[in-house]
Amino acid sequence: MTTILDTPVTDIYTEPVNAVQKIAFSDVPDAGEFTVTFDGETTAKVAHNVSAANLQVALLKLPSLDDGDLVVTGDAKGPYTLTFGGAYAGVNVPAVTTTDTAVKKGEAVVTSAVTTVTAGSPGADNPLAVQRGTGNADRTEDVSPLTGDSPAEDRVANKANYGDA
Q1: What is the structure's pLDDT at 8?
Q2: Helix and strand tally (H, E) in the chain?
Q3: Three-state DSSP class for 19?
Q4: To 5 degrees, how large is the angle CA 100–CA 104–CA 105?
Q5: By the 8 A CB rule, do 92 and 116 touch?
Q6: What is the pLDDT of residue 135?
Q7: Tens digit of pLDDT for each residue in 26-50?
Q8: Mean of pLDDT values over 139-162
Q9: Longest CA pairwise span in the chain (Å)
Q10: How far apart are CA 158 and CA 88, in angstroms?
């Protein structure tokens, strides 16, 4: 982080943040199938112990997702972490939903839940960032990080010579 007179200066630009969601089961299933729905489109049924790579393949078959739009990580039987990118980089995507189809552990029904780990957000200019002056006397739109005045105003007020004349 940049500091001026030991005061932190905020970043001028914030990077985009990709959405991250997690699918987890209430217990480790040993039977059944489930589907995942994204933006109104539903995958084919996948086995309770689908690998992250195969769940990613099922999701990428949806018309709204292309290669690079989603990466799925995690263990077979979950939890699965879905990280959006590509066309969805920096987008606050809608939460996926799941439909459990007789997902069980023994005779007990196992349910799934989706949580948003990180909401997506686009990068942006930070209007609160301190703009550094150029030191050129004819550039009055820049602001001195020390005084808040333009470089020309700073020179007049402080009778300063910054060595660029």
Answers
A1: 59
A2: 2, 13
A3: coil
A4: 150
A5: no
A6: 46
A7: 999 999 999 999 999 999 999 999 9
A8: 57
A9: 84
A10: 50
* Contact criterion met (CB below 8 Å) for 105 and 27: yes
CA–CA dist 106, 124 (Å, integer): 50
Average pLDDT, the chain: 81
Q: By the 8 A CB rule, do 104 and 29 touch?
A: yes
Of 119, 162, 126, 127, which is closest to residue 144 (Cα–Cα)?
162
- Retrieve residue 138's tokens: 């004819």
Confidence of residue 136 (pLDDT cuts 50, 70, 90): very low
Q: Locate 128 and state its tokens.
A: 């609160």
pLDDT at residue 124 in the model: 77
Total Cβ atoms within 10 A of residue 68 = 12
**Per-residue pLDDT tens for 77-90?**
889 999 999 999 99
Strand partners, 96: none
Please report where in the chains the tokens 């790579």 appear, as a residue: 53
> How far does CA 45 lie from the centroid of its chain?
28
AA letter at 108:
A
In the chain, where does DSSP find H-type helix? 52-60, 151-158
- CA angle, 144 as apex, 138 and 147 as ends, to 5°? 125
